[in-house]
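TODO from last week: model FAD-binding FR-type domain-containing protein.
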Amino acid sequence: MKKMTSSSCLLFCIKVCIVMIFVGWVCLCVLKPTQIWKKSWKVMEIHAKKSFLGHNGLNVVVFSYPLLFIAMLGYLYLHLLSQMKRQRQPYSIVNVSNPIIISKQVGIISMGELLSIVFFSAILVWELYSTISYDFINMKPFKHLHLSRLEIKSMHAGIRFGAIAEICMALLFIPVLRGMSVFKIFGLEFDGCVRYHVWLGTAMVVFSTVHGFIIMFIWGIKHTIWNEMKSWQLKEKANLAGALALVIGLIISITSMSPIRRKHFEFFYSVHHLYIIYTVFFMFHVGDRHFYFVISGILLFALDKIMRVMHSRPSPTRLHSATLLPCKAVLLTLSKHPSIKYGATSLIFLNIPTISKLQWHPFSIISSANINHDKISVMIKCEGWWTTTLYNKIQSILPTYSSTSSLNHVLSLPVVSFEGPYGPCDDHLFQKYDRLVLIAGGSGITPYLSFIEEACGRNHISSNNYSDMKMNRRKIQLIYVVKNSSDLSMLMPISSLLLLNESSSSHFLHLQAFVTREERNQTRTVKEIMEGFSQQVQTIQTTPSDHEHPNAPNMFSCNWSKMVMTGLCASIFLVSSVLLKPQCIPVFGSFLISVGCCWIVAVVAVKNGKREKHGNCGEIVREMKTICVNESSSSILESDRHKVYYGSRPVFSDLMEFKGEEGGDDDVGVFVCGPDSMQETVAVICRKYGRRSTNNCSFHFHSIKFSL
């Protein structure tokens, strides 16, 4: 008990430090445009020039270090929290996940997100107001342009719109960090933070466009636009670089729109890599002094990229099995190192070189790390060129499967590389609730499969342990909506759990399936449907070589190593900024030096770690689990727990109202993974029943999205 208390105090202290540094960074944004800051900054520069830091070192410490320190403390916090997960620490996110704004245009916005948006918008408004008001009071003419008073005001306003675009740029890359995600401190994973990146990117492009349009319009009036564009000052403003950055930003923004992104994802993905050129031009345009303010997010993104490349470098993994389901989905089972752990809703990025050497696609993991120690499974629905090619490739091997040796179909199955897993380290988000309602549409069922498998195993263990009876009593209501009955074959990985008898450990699970495009007069039950699917699935099983070593987690999978790498990068960046001469563009040179050094350290560390792992890699048990129903006929019986409704859609309001009446004073976690319309409908209901005062049962809404 004493150890737990001291650890909790340490976590609390780290939280306080993170909050204090963040408040300091916010105060920096608030005070930066004021006269108080400008006078204080001149005094600090005088003192810094007399010390070893110098002007560049002062810029790094004041503008670049706050976010880097927050990241370092965040990784330390997550490392300590992962060591305490067996002590059932409370979930880290504040209970502000219930929706407040539900709109087709902006999506579903929770209370926490709304407060963050208001707070961030207030900072931007203050920055714009304070700088423009100061410029208007102390208005200085642009002598070489001979502008009128109105044109001078417009020019100053345009410049200040560019200043608030810098604040958006400072945070732009942080939401898309995968392995080094800082938002994990608040319980948010990579897939849930992508839209913050979209919001920040959109705001930055809008402000930059206003900034560029106003200034170039004034230049156009004075017929000096070409002369101004030719201006390229390495230490101050490079106007041509700004114009090129604006054009690239608009191209990236336009190709990121939903119609283009969804229908032409490869084009969107390729164009998005122009962010590298955009960042370089942005740096030349804003100048050395301003770029120190945005460099911390770029450094973290570069480190994250290095660690991801190092993590995906081990030799490709051969498939244990490949299964074709009637709904045109592929279930792949790969080798993994037993020490790789992950929680429910985690995902991995897959690359199959025989299909495309450059494309990496995210897929939800459907197997539990605590039950399948040396294997990891994903389910892939055919919905595009890449997935259809994979399905056809597996299908083409089936005719020769029975007539060839095991070695032949090992060689014929595609080789797979995977990066990840990315997601929560455990199932705290699911465990914090007394009851669970899991709602899925189509392939949205995949994030839940690993948790259901894990929960079944836990309930089986806890059924003989009185102290864990609360876990054993937790009920899970699974509502699954599909277009055709063949889509129900995506439940095959948990078919044996669905069909076990009432005395088994699966009595906690209740399924309600809705088949919307088939006639109402059908009476097929879950048992009949699953038994039919078990005769239709086609599986290729292989025996991997004994010399094959599955992907092992390298040192960069640990949060403490991320903290060390961030600290190393920050230190090298500071030292190189102090030592480089002004003519060398210190911020750009320091960035290249720090990232290059970290890359070398990463390569050496991975090579050394690989030798140790290959030397100590013990024999891994390789036994396949069939996904067919393996229970004897006596253990399979018809039950009212599972129902299939044909030709109808679920009325979520009735279902939720019923759950509220039978739930007592329970906290019910409602998880939705499906189309936007489904998520919005459920969010409205959760907002209605979210407060305990209106109903005995309190609903807590959580949205799961795995599509960009």
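Done. The chain has 24 helices and 15 strands.
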